[in-house]
């Protein structure tokens, strides 16, 4: 695009950052993200931050992800915290997982996925009592894990 003289807009940046996150090209994502402001004068929005957090989290760069969240010029939402919770679960970081779960609990207390990820993180770490507390919290607010069904 740039070689063709076409200026990327925020949607293009989101698409490119998403592709980088899913393919593990964290260094490329970081260059693109940094170029948004410096080269193109575009301030990143929540979606672009979420893409970066997702890329860092998928790559196990949880500290980088948390630093980025902490440096955001606005309050992070569930789109930002969710990938970090999943990254903490994937890489077994119970402490970070609990911190992120608490943030998500304040934003979306009825999202069963967050409870399930956190309970599984505790279970995988052998913290059975903590996992049961999270499950009890989920049931305490009237949520249940919905069984999956197929029309096939």
What does this structure look like?
This protein has eight helices and no strands. It is mainly alpha-helical and 152 residues long. Helices cover 68% and strands 0% of the residues. It has a single domain, classed as Alpha Horseshoe (Serine Threonine Protein Phosphatase 5, Tetratricopeptide repeat), CATH 1.25.40. 32% of the residues are buried. Helix 1 runs antiparallel to helix 2 and helix 5 runs antiparallel to helix 6.
Average pLDDT level: 92
Number of helices: 8
Order of helices and strands: HHHHHHHH
CATH class: Mainly Alpha
Any idea what the CATH architecture is? Alpha Horseshoe
State the CATH superfamily name. Tetratricopeptide repeat domain
Portion of residues in beta strands equals under 5%
Largest beta-sheet characterization: none
Report how far apart the termini are: 43 Å
What would you call the quaternary organization?
Answer: single chain
Helix share of residues? 55-70%
Rg measurement, Å: 18 Å
Pfam family, one: PPR_3
Protein name: Pentatricopeptide repeat-containing protein
InterPro entries: E_motif (IPR046848), PPR_At4g14850-like_plant (IPR046960), PPR_rpt (IPR002885), TPR-like_helical_dom_sf (IPR011990)
GO molecular function, one term: RNA binding
Give a short synopsis of this structure:
The chain has one domain: Serine Threonine Protein Phosphatase 5, Tetratricopeptide repeat, CATH 1.25.40.
Key traits:
152 residues, 8 helices, Serine Threonine Protein Phosphatase 5, Tetratricopeptide repeat, RNA binding, E_motif, mainly alpha, PPR_At4g14850-like_plant, PPR_rpt
């Amino acid at each position: 695009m740039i070689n063709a003289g076409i200026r990327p807009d925020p949607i293009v940046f989101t698409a490119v950052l998403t592709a980088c996150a899913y393919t593990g090209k964290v260094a490329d994502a970081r260059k693109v993200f940094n170029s948004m402001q410096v080269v193109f004068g575009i301030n990143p929005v929540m979606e672009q931050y979420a893409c970066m957090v997702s890329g860092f989290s998928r790559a196990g760069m949880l500290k980088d992800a948390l630093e980025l969240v902490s440096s955001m010029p606005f309050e992070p939402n569930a789109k930002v915290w969710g990938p970090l919770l999943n990254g903490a679960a994937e890489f077994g970081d119970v402490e970070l997982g609990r911190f992120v779960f608490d943030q998500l609990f304040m934003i979306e207390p009825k999202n069963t996925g967050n409870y399930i990820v956190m309970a599984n993180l505790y279970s995988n770490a052998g913290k059975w009592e903590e996992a049961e507390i999270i499950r009890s919290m989920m049931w305490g607010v009237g949520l249940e894990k919905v069984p999956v069904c197929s029309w096939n």
